[in-house]
Amino acid sequence: MMKVKLTILESKCRGNYHRTGDTFIVEDICPPICHELWQSIYPSVYTLLNKGDLDYEATREKKFRMRCPDNGRVLIHGEVVQD
């Protein structure tokens, strides 16, 4: 089964939900992260869970980086991992 590993690369989260280095594994349910951040990354996570790939710089990859909608206070990296 496909899984997506989410890693917080930078965090200046005003709600103190996220710390740099936090990781989450997504299989089929929302991980315990901020809802605004989840809503932003969900389309990318869904694509990866369904064997798709995404634009990643100049190539197509099974990973992404995205910033939080709250002025980019959190930088998150998502990538496909296998069992």
Automatic annotation (TrEMBL):
Source organism, top-level taxon: Bacteria
InterPro entries linked to this entry: CHP04076
Name listed for the protein in its UniProt record: TIGR04076 family protein
Organism: Anaeromonas frigoriresistens
Phylogenetic lineage: Bacteria, Bacillati, Bacillota, Tissierellia, Tissierellales
